[in-house]
Structure formats: C-alpha cells, structure tokens
Amino acid sequence: MAHLIPFPLILLQSLTLLISIAIEAIIYQSKLNLSHKRSVEFSISMNLLSAIFLWAVFSIFLSFAPDPIKMRFMSYLLFSNLYDLNSFQANLSFLLMFLFLFMFVCLIEFKGLDILQALLLSSPDSSDSEQFLVNRINKALLKTDVSKASVIVLANICSNSVILLILLFKILPTYD
Amino acid sequence: MIKNLQALWNNLLPIQAYSWQSFFWTSLFSLVMAGLLTPIPRFILFCLAALFFIISMTWLCLKNNVPLTPWITSALICLALFLLVNIPSQALILLWLPLAGTIAAYPCFFDKFCHFHAPTIIERQKLVILLGTQILLSCLLQVNFLMQNWLDQYPSLLVDDFSRSVFVVKWQVTPRIDPQGLLLLDTMGELLQRTLGGKNWTETGEWLRGAVHPRENEEQSDSLGALRQEAIAKLENRLNPLAEYPFWAITIQVSEQPNLYLVTLLADWTGPRSERSREQNPYLCEMICQVEPSIQGVSTNCQRARRNSLPPG
Questions:
Q1: Cα R_g (chain B), whole angstroms
Q2: Tell me, what's the pLDDT at B52?
Q3: Which UniProt keywords apply (chain B) (predicted)?
Q4: Residue predicted with more confidence, B176 or B218
Q5: Number of CB pairs, chain A paired with chain B, less than 8 A apart
Q6: A90 vs chain B: nearest CA distance in angstroms?
Q7: Which residues of B touch A50 (CB under 8 A)?
Q8: What's the pLDDT score for residue B309?
Q9: What b-and-e string marks burial along A130-155, b requiring 16 or more CB atoms within 10 Å of the CB?
Q10: Is the ipTM, as predicted for this complex, more than 0.90?
Q11: Kind and range of the H or E element at B56?
Q12: How many CA atoms lie within 13 A of B241 on its CB side?
C-alpha cells in the first residue's frame, strides 16, 4: 500500500502566495496610496482570491477535459513531464498556459480589488448602508479604471517573475 | 474512578433549563425514542438527536472557551451528515473547512439574540481573509483527493520512481508494490492454456505464428490482441474496472524447438511515466509458458508472471 501526498505542492503554493503577497503589497502601497496595513490586507485578499479561482478552474477543467489532456495534466503533476508530447510542443503549451494564467489572474485581481475597495473602504454616508453597498459593488463591477489596471498588471509582472525564477530553480534539476 | 464518574454525572445534570446539558439529554432522549419507532419517524428523530448533540457540544466548547470551536462544530456537522445522509466522505472533508469558516463568521453578522447587523469594516476584511484561507485549504485537499482518484484508476503508477517529482512525495507502507501487468499476464496465461488446449499441434503452431506476426496472416484476426481483450474483460468482471488496462501493451516472443514452443509474454506500460523509469523499467512484467504436444493434444505450462528489471529488448 502506498499513497501520493502533494506536500511539495502545498509548500510551493504557500511559498508563491507569500512572495506575491509581499511584492504586490509594496506596489499597491506605493502606487495606489494605501496605508501599509491596508495594502498588505488587500494583497492577501487578492492573492487568496486568484489562487482559489485558479484551483476552481483547474478542477472544473479537469472534470470536463478529454482523456488525452487529463493524462498530460496527470503526467505533469506526478512526474513533471508531459506525456506524449515532444519538447517543443511541451514548451509551447507551457508558454500558452502561463500567458493564459497570467491574464486570468490579472483580470480576477483587478475586479477583486474593485469589489474589495467597494466593500471595505468606509463610505461617508453611513445611513442606508446596505443599499449603498450593493450599489457600490455594482459600480465596481462595471467601471474600468485604467490606471488601477496598470498597477495590478505591474504588480503581477513583478511577483510572477520572481515566482517563475524560483520555480525554474526548483524544476531545472529535474531535467537530466 | 468513582469520584471522577460522580463529577462527570454532576456536570451532566442540567442546572437550569437553558443550558447545554438540557440539549445533551434531549439528544439522548431522541436517540432512545428513535429506537422504538418505524423507519421514517426514526430518521427524523435521529436528525433531531444529531442537531441537539451538535448544539450542546458547541455550547459546551463556547462556555469553556475551547479554541477552534467552529472547526469542531463543523466536523460534528459533517460527521452527522455522513452518518445520516450518507454523503461521500470526500465531499464532506472538502465541506469541513469552508463550513467552519462560515460558522466562525456567524458572530460578525448576528448578535446574542440572533439580530442581524452588518459587519464592521475591520470585520469584513478579516472575514474575507478567513473564508479565503479556508476555501484555499479546501482546494488543496481537493488536489489530494484528485491524486488519490488517479491512483485508484491507475494503481500501477505507484511502482514508478517519484524521487524527482516536483509536486508529490510517495508514502509507501508496504515494502513491495506490484503493477497490474502481473495480474493481466497471469490471466492471459490461464486463457492461453484454455485456448491452446482445444487445438492440435499444427493449429497451435499456426495460432502462435499469428500471434507473433498478426499482419502477415490477414485471414486470421490478431489472436494476441483478442486474448488481451478477453483477459481485460475477465479482470474487469472479477475486480473493479480500471482505466489503466488500455495502457498495457502486450508483446509475445516464441522460440521454436523440436516438439516444444517457449512462449514469452511481456507486458509493458505505455502511459505516463517518469524519465527515470525509462532506464530501469519498473513496469515491465514477463511470463514464460512452455507449450508441448501431449496425449490429450497440447499441454501448456505457464510460470507465474514476474517483474522484469531489464529494459525491453
């Protein structure tokens, strides 16, 4: 009897979360004029939100994906290689997947930050606050603030670059 | 001992009607009464007993300021759902942490008298982080279950080398794990004995040649492939159907000697595998059968299939 325990995966997830929380908090603080505490709180919330969305999308995708794609995910998670693909195809799929994930995370964090600001920043009008909260969330979902979006893209570029570097150090020794 | 029991009894006696002990005794009473009833009222009383028990235990924990009370309550709710409604345990383990987070959030929304109030801004931020961490932990548990489900479907993967895996570690309890290829070869051996038992020596030679070179003999079907399919069907009838069987490739080698065929069946894994397993193939299994003419026709003696650590030839 034997089991496979995704302990390194959990450690890696915690490490990437900690790194991106720290880096993004610094950028939010300097670019969005937030207080030190609030920027860390926002960064924690954003990163948790995007990680949850990524795992949810991964689970849903795997339940609908055709068998060959499932086998490739299985092969990558268990053996760190892509089953039945040559190295060019494998690298191309990594690149495409990374770009997709990056854009997805940016989108989630952008809308997440808008909603979180609507939810958490104190409103001057405290009466009828619930009605006001719903209105604020609706407004946050619909409006697009270009400068805020650029801050989030910048924060993600910085944090993802560092994470990629660390992942490379982790994954490189597995290539013979 | 008697003093301890007496102290426990004194603790369990309700001092007033509005106390955790009352709920505890009500749950016990419901449980006893449930035993006397027909199925449907019994189920309702079991549910009530579970509800009262959960309320009483939560109350007890809150009264004594036990840390992680919401997690204990959530675990009790999940246990009750498992015992009463028979929801799969994996789903309940995934539910446990988010439910605990929701229970922990309860005081932010309701006061002592169950009156709703909106959480303050500081509370809202804490709630977002609390629920976020709980759901993320649940997601990671889900990944663990996903891997266990893969192993249920592809148990032979456990013979592989995981020392270079980036994401998982192997925790092995038993010293030896056998690939499913062994079982497949053993079943094929039994079927081979049965198939060749009904043939004469000339037909046996033709069958074996057809198995080695299926394309050269167009009129006959692929006899080895048919044997493999039959063995898989037999295994699937006997055990749980596994998704890994199509990934086992079977090859046959026949060496012809005077009045004797030495048949070697090899099973190799064509599914996902580690780079290291290509050098020292832990999946490769082999079985040697001796086919010779006898008074009844043809006799086939197969050894038990065994692991072969040599690379495929």
A1: 32
A2: 94
A3: Membrane, Transmembrane, Transmembrane helix
A4: B176
A5: 140
A6: 14
A7: none
A8: 54
A9: eeeeeebeeebeeeeeeebbebbeeb
A10: no
A11: helix B39-63
A12: 4
